[in-house]
Design a protein that fits this description.
- By secondary structure, this protein is mainly alpha-helical.
- The N and C termini lie far apart (124 Å).
- Strand 1 and strand 2 form a beta hairpin.
- It has a two-stranded antiparallel ribbon.
- Helix 2 packs across helix 3 and helix 11 packs across helix 12.
- The chain contains 12 helices and 2 strands; from the N terminus they run H-H-H-H-H-H-H-H-H-H-H-H-E-E.
């Protein structure tokens, strides 16, 4: 048999319905959505009544989403659950004697009074100050100034609604959040630096005090235990390519090979030979290394060549070549060779 709206209708809240998304929910809206959720879960469980906490969890999540959409801070999830449980218990206690007392005048007054009170806002706002403009709550619990009029309206005549997202205000909030995050990071960095400097000063004071108390022999033993900077430098150099490559530079200039190509070819050869391995890449040659070696080799060759031109030679052509010859008496004579 199909379940009709009349069959699942409540005596106090009428037919179950969805919770409106454009306004903050009232007690009646919450209970209507509670009954609707209960009927849906009951249908999924083959007409078995679902547990109260399962239904309440869905309702509470929906209520919190609407309050978050309105950008109004609310109380914790547990506190909202307590409020819903308390109101639901009052509702169930009121319905227990309904069949036997539904025609009673005082009982009808209680029901009508409960209906009137259910039209009030299901207020889960974190700020409970009587005058919002004079709020003295913490910053995280304060109501934004732009949302105060809306909250007062929802607590009273309920004429306003939640419209679409305010893009301009959203951009302001995002920028404010970014500035706050950057400020927090700077504070953390500053505190870390101050802590490190304090530790260094404390260590320095301890070292100076111990040095004053120790003898010369102790100082020598301490010096022996200290790390050798030259040794650390040698370890660093072992991990870098410090071998000179003059012949590679000369071959590159002779055959016109670029720095990048020369570095790739040389590294490939070293890898084939087994000098470069996955665990040891200290002998890898890069193009900067090749460029520096070529500059050094060119400088060395230029330094060993005389600036005096003794003759002009034309390779591949049979021309007469004139050579200047300096005689013993200092005179310079020219000689032409065919």
């Amino acid at each position: 048999m199909a379940v009709t709206r009349k069959k699942v209708s409540c005596v106090i809240f009428d037919a179950p319905s969805e919770m409106p998304d454009n306004q903050l929910p009232t007690y009646a809206d919450v209970m209507k959505f509670y009954n609707l959720t209960k009927q849906r879960l009951k249908y999924e469980l083959n007409n078995k009544d679902p547990p109260h906490h399962n239904v309440a969890e869905i309702v509470i999540t929906k209520v919190e989403q609407i309050w978050d959409k309105a950008s109004i801070p609310h109380v914790s999830h547990r506190r909202v659950q307590e409020m819903l449980n308390k109101y639901h218990k009052t509702f169930m206690n009121l319905l227990k004697p309904y069949k036997s007392r539904k025609d009673s005048g005082p009982y009808q007054e209680k029901i009508s009074q409960f209906k009137d009170e259910s039209k009030k806002l299901f207020d889960i706002c974190s700020c409970k100050c009587s005058f919002i403009s004079q709020c003295q709550c913490e910053k995280s619990r304060k109501i934004p100034a732009i949302e105060r009029d809306f909250l007062e309206d929802q607590r009273g005549p309920r004429g306003m609604i939640i419209a679409k997202v305010d893009e301009a205000e959203s951009i302001k909030l995002q920028k404010r959040y970014i500035r706050k995050e950057l400020t927090q990071r700077q504070k953390c960095r500053k505190s870390d630096i101050d802590g490190i400097s304090e530790k260094q000063s404390d260590v320095g004071e301890e070292i100076s005090s111990t040095e004053e108390k120790t003898d010369a022999s102790d100082d020598e033993s301490d010096n022996d235990c200290r790390p050798d900077p030259n040794k650390q430098l040698r370890k660093l150099n072992d991990k870098q390519m410090r071998v000179k490559l003059p012949l590679l530079a000369l071959a590159c200039d002779r055959y016109g090979v670029s720095d990048r190509a020369a570095a790739g070819i040389a590294s490939a050869v070293l890898q084939d030979v087994g000098i470069i391995q996955e665990r040891d890449v200290s002998k890898v040659i890069d193009r900067s290394k090749v460029r520096r070696e070529r500059c050094k080799k060119r400088g060395t060759l230029c330094a060993g060549v005389s600036n005096t031109i003794t003759g002009l030679y034309f390779d591949g052509r049979k021309d007469s070549t004139m050579t200047l010859i300096k005689e013993c008496d200092g005179e310079i004579s020219s000689k032409t060779n065919n």
